[in-house]
Write a structure and sequence with these properties.
The protein is mostly helical. The protein contains five helices and no strands. Helix 1 crosses helix 3.
């Protein structure tokens, strides 16, 4: 169930940045019965309400230097990795989490800055 929720919210986030559809229209397209429930779930997942997410994403995409755009991409990747790690924690326990975390972060941290 959590996977499906995240997938629907990811679709919503993509639509917020790539279309001019209203938040209510996007909520309906990704399967939410109300704009309010989409707003609550979206804010829980991305720490921003959908309208603010759209504004910040479009603003950064248009006006930010390349390093800030990359930072936004890294932030979204971090959110995805955090969710994946949370799911894996339930499945593998503490020892498995340690192994998974080391595997995910070691190539990222090894890159030159």
């Amino acid at each position: 169930m959590a996977y499906l929720t995240r997938w629907r919210l990811q679709l919503g986030a993509q639509m917020l940045t790539s279309t001019n559809s209203s938040v209510a229209q996007i909520a309906a397209k990704v399967g939410y019965e109300s704009e309010a429930s989409f707003n609550r779930a979206f804010k829980r997942e991305f720490s921003l309400p959908p309208a603010k997410f759209r504004l910040e994403s479009k603003s950064l995409g248009r006006h930010a230097p390349a390093h800030e755009q990359q930072s936004l991409a890294v932030s979204h990747l971090h959110l995805k990795l955090s969710s994946a790690i949370e799911d894996m924690t339930l499945a593998t326990g503490a020892f498995g989490l340690l192994l998974v975390t080391a595997r995910i972060w070691s190539p990222i941290l090894a890159r030159p800055q």
